[in-house]
Amino acid sequence: MAEILTVLTIIFLSASVTLYAMKILGYPALPAYIVAGVLVSPFIAVQDLLTLGEVGVMFLLYVFGVKFTPSQVSSVGWPAFTVSFLQIVIIGSIGVGTGYALGLTLFDSVLLGFVAAFSSTLIGLELSEEERHNKLLHGRLSESIHLIQDITGLLLLGIVFGYSSNGALLTMAYMVLLILVTTILRRTVFPFVANSVKFNQEIVMLLGLSTLIGFVYGAMMMGLPFFVGAFFAGLASAQFPYNLELLDTFGPIKDFFTAVFFVVLGALISVPSLSVLFVVFGLVFLVVVLKPVVTSILLRLHGYTDRVSILTSLATNHVSELSFILVIHGLILGVVSDMFFTIVVLTGVLSMIIASLLKKHQEEIYSLFNDDFDTGSIDKTGHVLVIGAIPGTVEAAKYLSSEGEDVVVVDTDSERLKEVPHGIQVYNGDIMNHDVLRHLCVSDASIVLSGAKSHAVSQKLLRVDGPEVIVHAENAVKAKQYYEEGASYVLLKDIAIIDLLKEYVVNMSEKERLTLKERGLNQLRRYEYR
Amino acid sequence: MIPFGFDLAVLLLTAAVLAYILYKVGQPTIIAYILTGVILGPTLFDVATSSFLIDTLGELGLAFLLFFLGIEMNIKELESLLWPLIRIGLWQTVLQTALAFITAYVLGFTSIEVLIISLCTVFGATPVVVKLLADKGELGSLPGRIDTGVLVLQDIYIIALLALLSADGLTSGWVVATEIGKIIALISLIGFIIYVLSRNILPAHFATVASNKHAFFVHSLAWAFIFISLSMYLDLSIETGAFLAGLGLGQLDFRKDIKERVRPLTTLFIVVFFSSIGLQLEGSNLTAYWVEALIAGTVLTIGNFVIMYWLINREEFSKKTSFLGAINMTQTSEFSLVVGGIAVSQGYIGGDILGFLSLMAITTMMTSSVMIYKNDTLYEFFKTYLWGYDYDDDDEFAPRKDHTVVIGYEEGLSEVINMLPRPICIVDNNPVYADTLKESEHDYIYGTFFHKEIRNEADLRDAKLVVDMSLNFEGSKQVLSEAKNAVVILRAETADEAEELYLLGADYVIVDNIMIAERLEEVLHVWEDTDKRRAEVKKDKDIVMKDVLLHG
Q: Which residue from B minimizes the CA distance to A246?
C-alpha cells in the first residue's frame, strides 16, 4: 500500500510540474507526461506499474469509442478517405523501407512504417478555438483524416496482434463478429437497459464498466488485444443521451489512468545511444517534414487550395498514441525490443512538440509556399467582392446583385460555392494569397464584404486601399480596432443579439413569446439552404 | 493479456448487477456492494479474494471520499459549528461507549471482549454516511454538516486509538497522552501548511492551469496525493491527509469543477471498497454470535439514535435537524473490523468476536443505509412523536424559483443580461470572468453546465427564463429536457442544429451567422444614402465603444 501511494504521488506531482512548465512554454500537454516519466524513472519500479498503465489504455480507448461519431468522419466526403489511405500507404512504405535499410527485422520495419504513417486524434483536436468554432475547412479535413486513421490503425493493430494467436482468417472473422455484436448492442440493448436507469450516474457508470469488462474479456478470448475490445465497448455504449453521462463519468477516470500510462511510458525509455538518436531524427524528419509534404500534395491533387492543403497537413504531422499503445503492448508481449520502444516514444514526443511549434507559425509557413495556380484574373472595376460563401454573406450578395451590383463571391471551399445562386459569379481561391487578391482586382472594387471569421483575413483586407471594407469581428475589442483601421462597417454578433434580447426577452409577455418563436423559424427558413 | 485481475472483474460485474437490482427496488447501492463482497467471498461462494489491486483501490476510495468531503466543507460554516460539534462528539463517544459496554456485558462477553467491543462500536461509518449524503446532495445541509463534522472528529480519535492499540507500551498514561498530543500536533501542522498554501499560492496557480481540464485535474490529484503520502509517513491515516487536502482546495473558485471531476473516480473506488469489506469476512466466524449480534445491533441502533437526537437538540437545533442528524449515525463503522483485526493479532480477542463485530457492522451498515436514504420520509412519519424543544434554525438554502438562468457569460452582453428579469443566476466556467461575476449582484455558479450537480443547483426545473449562450449542442438539448416551464433561448452554430432545437421546444435559437446577416442587410439597404448609413453604423459603433469602455 505504501509503495503504490508513494509512486502515485511521485507520478502526479512530476506530471503537474511538467504540465505547468509546458503550459508556460506553450507546448502541448501530452509530451509533458512522458517527460515527467523520464525524470522520475530512477525513482519508481516501473514494471509494477505496467498493469495500471494498461488500465489507462483501456479507458483511453473506451472513451474514444464513446466519443466517436460516424458523421464526423464523412463530413468532408470521400477526399478524406482517399487522402488518408494514400498517405498511409506512401509514408508507411517509406517507413518500412527506411527500417529495412537500417537493418531492422521485417517485423520491426513494418511497425516503423505504422508509427510513421498514423497521426493522432488527441493532439490534433487541440485546434485553436477559432478553427473549431468557425468550422473552417482545414479543421474539418484534419479531423476527418485523424478519425479515419485512428479507426484504420486500431483495426490494423487488432489484426496484427490477433494474427499471432489465430491466423489471418480467424482474426478477420472475429473482428466481423465484434462489429456485429457492437452494432446490436448499440442500437437495441444498451438504450433499453440505460433507459431504465434514467440518468443515475452511478448505475450508468457500472453499466459502462460492465460493458467494458465484457468486451475486454471477449476480445481476449478471441485472441484480439484487449484495447480493441475496449474501443468496441465504447462504441456499443454510445447512444445519446447516455454517452454524455458516460463521458461525464469516465472522463476523470480515464484521465487518472492515462496520466499514469503516459508517465510509465516515459519511465520505460532507456538511455538512447547515438545510433538510436540517429534513427529518431530520421523518423522525426519523415513524420514532421515528409509526411505533411506528401499530404499537401495529395490534397492539392484533389483540388483543394494551397492554404487548405498546407494547413491540414500541418495538423497531421505527428505520431499517434496508437503507436505508443502498439509498442507498450509489444514490449509486454516481448515482441518489441527496448531499443525500438525508446525510438518510438522519443520520436513521438519530439514530433508532438515540433508539430505544435509549426502549428503556431502556420501562417508564416503558408506564405512561404504561396504560389497558387490561380484561376485567372477577373479584370473588373467597381465590383463588389464578397468573401466567404456563408449564409450571412451570400444573402447580402443576393441582395446587392438584385440592386444591380456586380458581385463576385470568393471562397476556398468549392462545396460552399455550389450553394451560391446562379447568376452570381463565384471564384474559388484563397484571398490570403496575394496573387489571388491581385487577380480579383481588389483595389478597384467598390466594396469588399468579408464574412470570414479569421482575424488574419480581416486584417489583410483592411490593409487594402481603395474599396470600402466591411469585415467580421470576433468581439468588441477587435471591432473597435477594425473601425480604427478604417473599416466602413464591422459585423459583430453581439449587436444583433443585444437587440433581440432587448426587444423580445427583457419584458416578455406570452404573446411576445410566440412572436419570438415565429420570428426565429422564419429567419431559419430565409437563411437556410442546407 | 488482460490489464486487471479476474477477481476485480468478477467483483465489478457482480456489483453492477446487484446495484442495478437494488436501484430498481429503490434501495441504496451500498447494500449491493457489501453483498457483493459477502457473496463472492469466503462466506458464500468463495470465487474471489482480496487482491493487491482490490485493496489498493479500496483504500484509495476511502481517501478520495474524504478528499471529496473536504472540498465540500466550508470552513466558515464549520467555524460557527465548532463548539457544538466538539460537545456533541465528546458526549456521544462517552454515552455510546457506555451503552455498548452495558449491552456487551449483559450479553455475556468477557471483560476484555466487552472493552474491545465498546471501543469499536462507538464510531459511525464515515464512508456510508458521506457517500449517501453526497449522492442525495445533503452534505451541505445543516444535519449533514453536523454529522460530517462529528465523523471528522471521530476520525481523529480513531487515528489515536489505532496508534495506541498497535503500540506495545499501552500501560502508561503518559505514553497515551504523548501519542494523542503528537497526533494533534501533526494534524494541526499539516492543516496550517495547507491553510497558508491555499490562501497564497493555490488560487493563482490553479487559475493558470484552469484552462486545460486534464492539467487541472492532475494538479488537484497531485495536491491530494502529496498530503495523503505525507500523512502516511507520519503514521496518520491517509484519510486525514486526504480530508485536509480537500479542505485546502475547498476555498478555491474551482472547487465545484474539482469536485465533479473527483466524484466518478471516488464512486468507482468506493464500489471496490465496500465490496472488499465483504470479501474479508470469514464465514464461520460470522455466525458464531449471530443472535447476540442482532440484539446488540438493534439496541445500539435505537440507543445511538436517542443519544444523538438528545445531544443535537440540546445544542438548540430544531427537531428536524436533530432527527435527521441522529438517524444518519446509527451504524457501526467498518473501522470496527480494522480495530478488531488488530486486537486479534495482538491476542486481545478471538476470531469469533471479530465475526460478531463484522456481522454487526454489516447489518447496521445496511439498515442505516436504508434509513439515511429515506431519512426525509422517516421524518415525516415520526415527526409527531418527537420530544424535546423545537428550536428555530435557519437551515435550508432557499431553492430558486421563477428565476432567470444564464448559461455561458459573454462580456459583450453584460449590459443586456443585467436587464433580464430578476433574480438572475449565471453559470459560467471561464476563469477570466470569475472575479467580475463574483462581485456582481447576481447569483454566480462557477462550473460547467455539463455536470449534473451544477444543473441541479441552478434549479432549472423551476426557472422562468433560460438563456444559454454556450455553443454546446448536446448541453442545449439537456437544458430543453429539464427546463420544462421556462422560456428557453439557445444558441447554435448551424441552421440544422437550430431546427432540431426548435423541434425539441426551444423558443428561440440564436444562430450567429443569421443574426449577423439580418443586421448586415439592414445596413446594406441604406448603404447608398450617406446620412442614413452613417446613422446605422453609428448605432453599432456606439455599442462597440461602450462595450470596450466597460470591459477594456
A: B264
pTM for this predicted structure: 0.77
Q: Helices B290-314 and B75-106: crossing angle, nearest 10°?
A: 140
Q: Which helix or strand (DSSP H or E) is residue A343 part of?
A: helix A338-360
Pull the grid cell for residue B87.
460537545
Global ipTM: 0.76
C-alpha cell at position B270: 468506493
H or E, element range at B306: helix B290-314
pLDDT digits (tens, 9 = 90+) for B334-382: 778 777 777 777 777 777 888 888 888 888 888 888 888 888 888 888 8
Return the closest-CA partner of residue B244 out of B228, B229, B258: B228
The C-alpha of B50 sits at a distance from chain A's nearest C-alpha, in angstroms, of: 13
What nine digits make up the cell of A28? 502541448
User: Are the C-beta atoms of B496 and B474 separated by less than 8 Å?
Assistant: no
Distance from CA of A22 to the nearest CA of B (A): 10
- Partner residue facing B209 (CB), from A8, A20, A492: A20
Q: Which of B532, B490, B499, B524 is nearest to A393 (CA)?
A: B524
Q: What's the pLDDT score for residue A367?
A: 67
| CA distances to B65, B210, B232, B431 from B204, in Å | 26, 10, 28, 11
Question: How close A101 comes to chain B (CA, Å)?
Answer: 33
Mean pLDDT confidence for B284-306: 84
Q: What is the pLDDT of residue B358?
A: 82
Distance CA B203, CA B190 (A): 19
CB contact under 8 A, A491 and B516: yes
User: Rounded to 10 degrees, what is the CA torsion of B170, B173, B179, B182?
Assistant: -170
Pick from B19, B512, B514: which is nearest to A523 by CB? B514
Cα dihedral B315, B318, B321, B324 in deg (nearest 10): 100
From the list A2, A479, A491, the residue facing B232 with the nearest CB is: A2
Residue with cell 451560391: A420
Please give the average per-residue pLDDT across A438-454, as a whole number.
Answer: 88
